[in-house]
Amino acid sequence: MSHGNAALTPRQRLRLARQVVDDGWSISAAADYFHVSYPTAAKWARRYLELGAEGMADRSSRPHTHPNRTPQSVVKKIVHVRIKKRLGPVQIAGRLGLPASTVHAVLVRCKLNRLSHVDVKTGEPARRYEHEKPGAMIHVDVKKLGNIPNGGGWRFVGREQGGANRRVTPGKTRSKHRGVLMRHAFVHTVIDDHSRVAYAEIHDDETAATAVGVLKRATSWFADRGVTVERVLSDNGSAYRSHAWRDACRELGITPKRTRPYRPQTNGKIERFHRTMADGWAFTKHYNSESARRAALPAWLHHYNHHRLHTAIGKVPPISRLNNLPGHYS
């Protein structure tokens, strides 16, 4: 397609060329008649002689050769450092002795200019997937959190006061090397792969019996919202490798699947949810006790499911991806 300021369209070029070649006009006369320069008229006449009417079409202005383009061997070095070290253009340029602008141009061309395009753990280009409907796959995992002592933990009151609070809180344990320790809270989380709707319970252990109970209650919770669970993906924790877990999945009609060992990225959706949960609930404010933090979880889950905009699903709340569910924003 001709640009907006082109003197000749392909049709006009063909007219000019035919008048010169077929009708015997001089190039000067044709140039004057069509209000173009002599070289322009000569170019179209020559192209008509060589290619005929097909030669009147626009051509790409891209050069045939790029003598100053970054050599492929250098491109490979830039990509290797970017993926393995996750460095920015300036740091890569310093390592390889190149201009930062050259490094940035290569990263843009290779679609590695944003670190979000590269997997955080492995440095490999991210491979994303999403199941086609709610319930096709749910992810399960356990988030282990230290219990908060009465009076608050060290994150908000400081290490000295936090240690004093631990010493006066009942139910603590003692370590030979680390002194007074609090027990742990185990947040059993379930998230739907398609919608990112989440379900969570807090327990004092991560045994198979507890994990099975959470799975049964979670599937019932999802069923109340019109979602039938078909598969469940877990890591290789002992609870998920147990016979009790296998039997519970068979009873519920769910196919159990496990991630590849030492490959948490496969279960990345729930790992990312844990980070969101930690930032939005577990460590977002000062809690005077562990019971206060646990009591705040249901309200935060409601906010996450019904009101928080999720960037991975189009900046809408997760609950909006469940079909025909009343009261999405209640």
Query: What average pLDDT do the residues reach?
Result: 86
* Tally of structural domains: 3
Helix and strand element order: HHHHHHEHHEEEEHEHEHH
Give unreliable regions as ranges.
none
Structural class: alpha/beta
Radius of gyration: 32 Å
CATH topology type of the largest domain? Nucleotidyltransferase, domain 5
Which class of the largest domain in CATH terms?
Alpha Beta
Biggest sheet descriptor? 5 strands, mixed
**CATH-level-4 superfamily name of the largest domain:** Ribonuclease H-like superfamily/Ribonuclease H
CA(first)-CA(last) distance = 53 Å
From the 3D coordinates, which CATH architecture of the largest domain would you assign?
Answer: 2-Layer Sandwich
Helix content: 40-55%
SSE inventory with pairings:
Layout: H1 10-21, H2 27-33, H3 38-51, H4 72-85, H5 89-96, H6 100-109, E1 138-146, H7 154-157, H8 159-168, E2 173-175, E3 179-181, E4 184-192, E5 198-203, H9 208-223, E6 231-234, H10 243-252, E7 255-258, H11 268-282, H12 290-306
Parallel strand pairs: 1-6, 6-7
Antiparallel strand pairs: 1-4, 2-3, 4-5
What does this 3D model show about the protein?
The protein is of the alpha/beta class and 330 residues long. The chain has three domains: 10-56, no CATH class; 72-117; 138-147 and 183-321, Ribonuclease H-like superfamily/Ribonuclease H (Nucleotidyltransferase, domain 5, 2-Layer Sandwich). It is built from twelve helices and seven strands. The protein has helices at 10-21, 27-33, 38-51, 72-85, 89-96, 100-109, 154-157, 159-168, 208-223, 243-252, 268-282, 290-306, and strands at residues 138-146, 173-175, 179-181, 184-192, 198-203, 231-234, 255-258. The strands form two sheets. A five-stranded mixed beta sheet has the order 5-4-1-6-7, with helices on both faces. A two-stranded antiparallel ribbon has the order 2-3. Helix 4 (72-85) packs across helix 5 (89-96). The longest helix is centred in the last third of the chain and has 17 residues, at 290-306. The chain is elongated. The two termini are 53 Å apart. The model has no long low-confidence stretch (mean pLDDT 86).
